[in-house]
Amino acid sequence: MSERLSSLDLAGLSESVDLECKAAQGRDGRGELPEDFWKSYSAMANTDGGVILLGVQEKPRGRFRALGLAEVERVRKALWDNLHNRKQISANLLSEQDVEPIAVDDKTVLRIRVPRAPRQVRPVHLGSNPFGGTYLRRYEGDYAADDEAVRRLMAERVEDSRDERVLKGFDFGDLDMESVAAYRNRFAAVKPGHVWTDLPLPEFLERIGAWGKNREEGLSALRLAGLLMFGRAEVIRDALPHYMVDYQERPEARAEKRWIDRLVPDGSWSGNVYDFFRKVYQKLTADLKVPFQLHAGQRIEDTPVHEALREALVNTLIHADFSGRVSVLVVKRPDMFGFRNPGRMRIPPELAIHGGNSDCRNRRLQTMFQLVGYGDHAGSGLPKIYRNWAGQHWRRPVLYEMPEPEQTLMELRMSSLVPERAVAELTAQLGSRVAALPETARLALITAQVEGSVSHDRLKQITTDHPADLTKLLGQLVRDGLLIPDGAGRGMVYFLPWQRQTVGAAFDAADFGNRGLGAKPPELDAKPPELDAKPPELDAKPPELVTYHDWSAIPAQLQEELLALAAPVARRRKASPDVLRATIQALCTRRFLGLRVLAHVLQRDLDDLRKRTLTPMVQEGALLPAFASTRDPRQAYIAPMTENESK
């Protein structure tokens, strides 16, 4: 055993990786591979990977106690035996280096590093049937994947390119010919004299990959890529019922839904991917300042910022899972550009940022964009975005995924790494303490000031410090009262003491609420849902309502009121579910309360309260969540208003 850790080290580790601890003591107390190990293995493999520690107890959440394994080799042998048993688990992702004994508080513990499974292996499932045997990792733990999620994983596994499919019954009459003509004109301009330029339309579309043959069934028709690129929105939805593309220009640097310009498939234009790209790119770059430069006597209208925005927009479209229930969304604000596509990345974000790795979800779309000069070579688009943004001395782009619903987001902020205004605001609040802080600590506070919050992952992106040092630094800032933590493990985020914790990062997750299952596409309603349907917290939230995540931030008078309301539950070790639910609704009437506040006043365990009571109440409509994703570390709850209260 070359590595020795302490319980404090595990607390830090839980912020940098997905960590699952299992006592694994067995009936005789000597150590045994627990049955629920395989659920965690499947869930981590199908999500972001993680670390499982056998012989460590985590109770309550965030507090670790090493129990050790008396017969660690017996447990390790049972693990390897079952990894090669396809009746137990569908795939072995582990090597010898991934399974090793370590010392935690002088007790022998077995550490298993579970990698994120490549898409060609997912879903990793228990037993022989992926339906019912596939698990996903969520904020609360391991959850069985529903059939739709399993089918999506299986499609990702077998379809190298999701837009390759030839669509029976779809033909030239389903295309918007103005879009096709615009593409052909652009093709002729980019590739003058190319042999495809003067081909008849059917042959041209076949050459670029929009039209194809299914040789097994003996039919020729539009490919899905051709329908997406040139089709009419109403026809695209015949093949992809949840298809939606959305552009919003917002007037202020705030994560709210007010907009001054909007582009959605509303019948006034084709609604296809190519026209969306053309129109949105013009809007994104309309007011960019272009320095006067000449090349061969011609003025250069392109800049590194133009190039970065073009790459980001193309990437969003060619990597989108158009079968997903989330829309493609592009947001322009005075301080940033935001891009969202449905579906998670096919390779881990850190590999994509590094470059040289590519696994495009819609390769035919990618080729069609490249043929007219848009989009870079495979694996070089993201590095170019990061390089061009760094050339402006702006904050490093943020690329991240959300698992529920599955989506990938990129934020391009137009602010310097250390903006003078942010430093001035921090100095006004904290005085000379700011200048006395180490450089990385100052950067953490500035990031929280500029972006609304800071996290361990975000600091890893913008500093070169070791992850363990970042964990210690954040903990010290909390102890010094300079940051307020919220969440647990990898979901932990930190706010400045004076920040409203319901206001998230600039491209806020609240903007991406999950559309209800079975909901018809938004543009078929009188208004698209992003125009009409508000996130749940806005349905019942007057502007004066506030959110409390931290007990110390609640005024003393309100603390007394909350304690009095919670007394019927807090004074009893066991309270009936009906009494508990009624008390929670009373506590959350006309205010949002975070999980830690509720657990404090009710004297209940955080995880138990969330899993057994709060989540079912949300599902039943007895509580409204502040954010659509249950994983959001800023989650808070409010009781729905009655008709009399809402008047």
- The tally of domains stands at 4
Class based on secondary structure composition and strand pairing: alpha+beta
- Radius of gyration, in Å, reads 26 Å
What is the class of the largest domain in the CATH system?
Alpha Beta
Strand content: 15-25%
Strand order of the largest sheet: 13-12-16-17-19-18
Major β-sheet profile: 6 strands, mixed
Cα shape: globular
Low-confidence stretches: 502-506, 509-544
What is the fold-level CATH name, i.e. the topology of the largest domain?
Heat Shock Protein 90
CATH architecture of the largest domain: 2-Layer Sandwich
Distance between the termini: 66 Å
Q: Approximately how much helix is present in the residues?
A: 25-40%
| Average pLDDT rating | 84
- Number of DSSP helical runs: 24
Number of strands: 26
Pfam family, one: SLFN_AlbA_2
Protein name: AAA family ATPase
InterPro entries: RecG_C_sf, Schlafen_AlbA_2_dom, Schlafen_AlbA_2_dom_sf
Domain Schlafen AlbA-2: 15-141
Characteristic key phrases:
single chain, 647 residues, alpha+beta, Methyltransferase, Cobalt-precorrin-4 Transmethylase, Domain 2, Heat Shock Protein 90, Arc Repressor Mutant, subunit A, 4 domains, five-stranded mixed β-sheet, 37% helix, globular, Schlafen_AlbA_2_dom, Schlafen_AlbA_2_dom_sf, RecG_C_sf
